[in-house]
Structure formats: C-alpha cells, structure tokens
Amino acid sequence: MTTAPERTALPPLGRVYLSRAGVELKEFFRQRESVVFTLVFPVILLLGLGAVLDYDLGAGVDFPQYFMAGVITAGIVGASLQNMAIHIAAERSDGTLKSLRGTPMPASAYFAGKVVQVLAVAVATIALLLLVGVLVYGIDLPSGTDWLTFAWVSVLGAAACTLLGIVVSTLARNGRSASATVTPIALVLEFVSGVFMPFDQVPGWLQDVAAVFPVKWLAQGLRSVFLPDALAAREPAGSWELGTVAVVLGLWCVAGLVLCVLTFRWQDRGTR
Amino acid sequence: MIGAGEPAGRVGDSAPVTSTRPTALADGRPRPGDPLDPDAAVSVRGMVKRYGDRVAVDGLDLDIRRGEIFALLGPNGAGKTTTVEVLEGHRTRDAGEVRVLGVDPARGGRRWKAQLGIVLQSGGGDSQLSVRELLQARAACYAGPLDPDEVLELVGLTERAGARGRTLSGGQRRRLDVALGIVGRPRLLFLDEPTTGFDPEARRQFWALLRSLRDLGTTMLLTTHYLDEAEALADRVGVLARGRLAEVAVPTALGGRGTAPAVVSWTEDGVRRTAETATPTAFVQQLAARFPGEVPGLTVARPTLEDVYLKMIGEHA
C-alpha cells in the first residue's frame, strides 16, 4: 500500500465563491429582522427626523437635503459594520464557522461572500433612501462627477467598516453580546461624526475624536456629494478634504485588514 | 443478565475475538513508542491535550484501520470530543504525533479536509437556507460530491428538502448534519455523539444509515456514551476514561467479556443456586443430568457490556 497522501481534487475557486455569495444573499434577505433593521431603519430615520427637524442650513439647504448624507452614512455603517459584527459573531457562536472550517472551503470564499452581501445590502439601502428622499422631500440628486465621488467614498467607507465589523465580531464575547457591543459603538461614531446634526454643532474636542475614525470621513465625503460647495466652509478645514477622506479611509482599510488577519477566530474564545 | 430465553449463540460465545495483526497487542492497540502506522486511517502516539491545569487527553495511542468503524466510548468529560477535535484539526494538541489519512491535522490543508466528513457534536445554527440549499452549498466545496438529492434520500430527508433548518425535529436536524458530513464523499467520517437525543426508533434508523455508509467503504470514528450503540455499530471499541484509553477491543470481547467466567443460576430444592464457571457448556450438561427434564429457572450469563464498562470506568475514575 502506498503511504503518500493521494492528491484530492478541489473544485474551481469561482464555483465556491459563487456558492458562498448565493448563501450570504439568501441568509440576509430571507431574515426579516436583518432586512428591517438594516434596510428599513435608515428610511424610518429619514422620515422620522425629517418630519421633526426643520432648519435652514443656508445656501437653500433644508434638513432633509443635509441629512441625506448622514442617513446614507448610517445605512452604509449598518450594512457593513453592524451587519458584519452581529452576524459573524452569531455564526461563530452557533458553530456555523466551525463547521465551515472543517470543509475544504477556502477562508477567502467566506469573506468574498460577505463582501457581496455588504455590497448588495448597501446598494439596496442607498437606492431606497434616494427614492424616499426624492419622492418625499424632493432632495436634489448628485450630478455629474458627484456620482463618481459618491461611488468611491461609499465603497471605501463600506470596505473600512466591513473590516472593522469583522474585528468587532471577534472582540464580542459571543453572538448575543455582539449586538450590545456594536450598536452603541456605531451610534456614538455616527453621533460625533455629524450624521444626525450639522458637524459644526458637534463640540470641537468630539470632532477631533471623530476624526480618528472612518465614519466621520465617510459622512464628510458624502456631504460633498449632496451639499452645495458653499457649505464646505462649514467643515472643520473649510473644504471637503476629499484627498484626506481617501487617505484616512484607505488607512482604515489597511489597519482593519491587518487586525482581521491577526484576530479572526473560527470559534468562540476559550474553546480551543 | 442473559436469560434462558436468549439466543444460545451468545451464551456459548466463549472464544475471544482478537485482532490478527501481528505487530500490535491482542486488542489491536499500538504500544506507547510504536512508530506511527502509515497504512492506518488514523494513527496517534502519545497525544496529550491540556486545558490549563486539567489534562483532557493524557497520552493516547491509537490506530484506526481503513474501512473500520471505531467507537470511542466513555463518560462525559472523558476526553472523547477533545480527541476527535484534535484529529479533525479543530484543536491543537500539546504533545504527541498524530496522522489522519497520512497528514498531521495541525498542518492539514484543503486537499486533506476534502477527504474528511465531520459531524460535530452541535451542528450549525439557524440558517435561512432550505435543507436542499444547505446541502448544495456544502457540495459546492468539493470537486466530486454526491448528488445532494441522493444524500437526502439516503438520510431520509427527501420530504423535508424544502424546509428551513430550524423547522426540523432534533432527529431530522442530526440527519441533516450527517448529510452535510457525507455529501463530499469522505474517506473518513467523524461523528461526535451522533444520536444524542434520538428516540430508539430514530437511533435504529440512524444505525442502518451508518452501516450503509460503511458498505461504501467509509472509515468512521464515532464517539458515544451509549453502550448499545457501540456494540451495534463498531468493529472495535475504545473505552476512554480520564483522558486515557482503558481498553480497545471488539465489542464482544470488551473487558474480557468473551472469556470471563459465566454465571450459571438455577433453582434446586426450592433454593436459588448460582455457580461461576469457565466452562458453562460442560457445567450445564452435568446439571441437566441431575434433573429429569428442564433445569428449573436456568440462566447462563456473561457480564454485559454495561457491567464491564462500569467496572472499567470505575477503575480509572
């Protein structure tokens, strides 16, 4: 008898990736709670705050127009940071990750599936928000190259928040504590980043704290898309700082990726 | 106790069944320090696993032959799951040499994992996918999987193919776990307490399923704390107590059952009499000669698997 391990065939990577993408889309869109909280919640936020708050920010910008950038930021953070942190922690606690680890599925396929899920959820959320914004508040859609800015800021912000969400899922003790861990983190970051109110109304020292994290830069980049350039003067630097937006979000992607690779676990702590 | 009404074959089964492999001990167990067996599906020497100060596995030596169903039997906390999870690559070990299908599990890559089927003690969580979709997704991880619908047929879940995982009963959920474990055509299947929580009927159906897998040539390592399960399924049983293998044997020979003195009981002059004998057949013949017809209340008993098992884990506790 031969003692050398036989070489077992593996399926084409593309097939595994496609399969995982399908799994992740079904897992998200079939779960009513995740659809309601991630997709519909920002819309409720827009309608709710839009109905209550009403002030003129100058340059003909009303609150819904200003809030569009903020609520899309909240939508992207929900689709990426919160979604990843809560669901990956749950999959770790209930043994889904462990059982995937015992198959020849490459880890990259799991993450590719998550990326597809985040992209799909983020695009659906943004589309829904734009639709409601235009129909209910008659907000001005971006024009020309603003769409390009909209795209790269959203993708870079979503990427950074996805990676951070994966890290947070690992910090959480288990699936149940993940929601309690990440929801305050996300809300506080959104609050200090000018998502719910004009950023220049956030106290200066909190603005400095916010500037460390990606949510502030995501929101600022999106404000440049939805607000007239006249309002750039109200930003801390007096401009949209799109170059800094790209650099900070890019750095968070790199840092998030490194932290993911260093910390990711397939089982809850204390089970090895 | 084996009563007089039991099949005679069990009572007269006095020849111990031993392994014919010349290099190993009579029970087919390697000695500490033996070289790893390159032909074995699983070969373990001196495996140790600690959790802090607690030693979960304390120097395990074991070979599992290809095509065999091997049952690891033991009480809770004996180290069964730890052992299996080290072999699966889910846990690291603190000492010892381990080869699973010729590969060290600590360094097993995707091609190695493609040859394993793993049924964990607790299966996956609440999925939004249907039973068939779960199987199809798992099958997509392998180059030459079984047809998911055929696997559903094999485990008896065809009628629940469209159901979401969380609507399955406990037994159906476990059969889904097994279906997920076998859809990649594993050469070696790990089953960690596969029938815990089954009713007797479901357990028997499940055993039939595992036997049909064995007929396909699948090697199986099964952990259980059900003695009847080990006896019904396993070619060999290893009794694990406090992280050590107390014994490895074919089920009928476990604890010297096959050769242990038989206890013959009968009623004579209105008094219950018992005798221990190594030659129960001869004894019963003599006994029969003393009575005109049937020997009143005659029973011949060997220690049951449960007797020897409880004695064994008691000694090691």
UniProtKB/TrEMBL annotation, chain A:
Pfam families: ABC2_membrane. One of its GO terms (molecular function) is ABC-type transporter activity. InterPro entries: ABC2_TM, ABC2_TM_bact-type, ABC_2_transport, Nod_factor_ABC_transporter. The chain crosses the membrane at residues 35-53, 65-90, 111-137, 149-168, 180-199, 242-264. The keyword Transport applies. Keywords: Antibiotic resistance, Cell membrane, Membrane, Transmembrane, Transmembrane helix, Transport. Residues 33-267 form the ABC transmembrane type-2 domain. The keyword Methyltransferase does not apply. One of its GO terms (cellular component) is ATP-binding cassette (ABC) transporter complex. It is found in: Cell membrane; Membrane. It is a multi-pass membrane protein. Its main location: membrane. GO terms for biological process: response to antibiotic. Belongs to the ABC-2 integral membrane protein family. PANTHER family: NODULATION PROTEIN J. This is Transport permease protein. The lineage of its organism: Bacteria, Bacillati, Actinomycetota, Actinomycetes, Geodermatophilales.
